[in-house]
Amino acid sequence: MSEHFHAVVWIDHHEARVFHFNADDAERAVIHPQQPTRHIHHKSHSIGSGHSPEDQHFFHAVVQAIDTAGAVLIGGPANAKHELFKHIQRHAPQLLPRISAVETLDHPTDGELLAHARHYFRAADRMAPQRS
């Protein structure tokens, strides 16, 4: 997608917003699932959990969008961020060392999300071992 080192993903079951960025510039991509999740009600005495299955194609598209990043922050309001992380563990373990954190983030605007990610990586980069 880009040549920026850092990326942030905000994900829920309706979309993923992916930003590759540096201090001055950002590139944005929005990824939507092929079949958006609808709310499922669980009925008593029925088979199944009442939850829709994870959309593996959606998660795969997000993984492709962050594949070139050197450091990734994943956020979102509910379980999709954890499901994405589990998908990475199972299907793209080479990305695991580049996942910096998985955080709960409500519904930030694009500007708020970028500001949060820049602040996070500014602090994380200062704490990282310096290589010469």
How would you portray this structure in words?
This protein has 132 residues and is an alpha/beta fold. It has one domain (1-23, 54-132): Nucleotidyltransferase, domain 5 (2-Layer Sandwich), CATH 3.30.420.60. The chain is 31% helix and 23% strand. Strands 3-2-1-4-5 form a five-stranded mixed beta sheet, sandwiched between helices. A hairpin with a 4-residue loop joins β2 and β3. α1 packs across α2. The longest helix is centred in the last third of the chain and has 18 residues, at 110-127. The chain is globular and about 40 Å long.
Mind telling me the C-alpha Rg? 16 Å
The total of beta strands comes to: 5
CATH class: Alpha Beta
On the 0 to 100 scale, the average pLDDT is: 87
Strand content: 15-25%
Biggest sheet, in brief? Answer: 5 strands, mixed
Approximately how much helix is present in the residues?
25-40%
Distance between the termini: 28 Å
Shape: globular
Put simply, the count of helices is 3
This entry's quaternary arrangement is single chain
Stretches with pLDDT under 50, minimum 5 residues: none
The side-by-side strand order for the widest beta sheet comes to: 3-2-1-4-5
Q: In terms of structural class, how would the helical and strand content be classed?
A: alpha/beta
The total number of structural domains is 1
CATH superfamily: eRF1 domain 2
- The SSE order reads EEEHEHEH
